[in-house]
């Protein structure tokens, strides 16, 4: 196994999905589940998020978009680490 920046970004995206969904599964299974349920993004988020304000839900949906870019099937389509940081800072 070789460690790459693209692989690290994918793993970070999978961790974000773990946190956003409240589900802890194998990374690829969670990614498939999220992609399958993208029609209803509020359903993807942990049920505790629905108990928060609209502003917090909007931030979590913005983080979801970042996570989805990070877990892109194409390693070339994944952002660099610094770009992920910038996106996260802008999601505040």
Automatic annotation (TrEMBL):
<protein>
    <recommendedName>
        <fullName>Serine-threonine/tyrosine-protein kinase catalytic domain-containing protein</fullName>
    </recommendedName>
</protein>
<dbReference type="GO" id="GO:0016020">
    <property type="term" value="C:membrane"/>
</dbReference>
<dbReference type="InterPro" id="IPR011009">
    <property type="entry name" value="Kinase-like_dom_sf"/>
</dbReference>
<dbReference type="InterPro" id="IPR051564">
    <property type="entry name" value="LRR_receptor-like_kinase"/>
</dbReference>
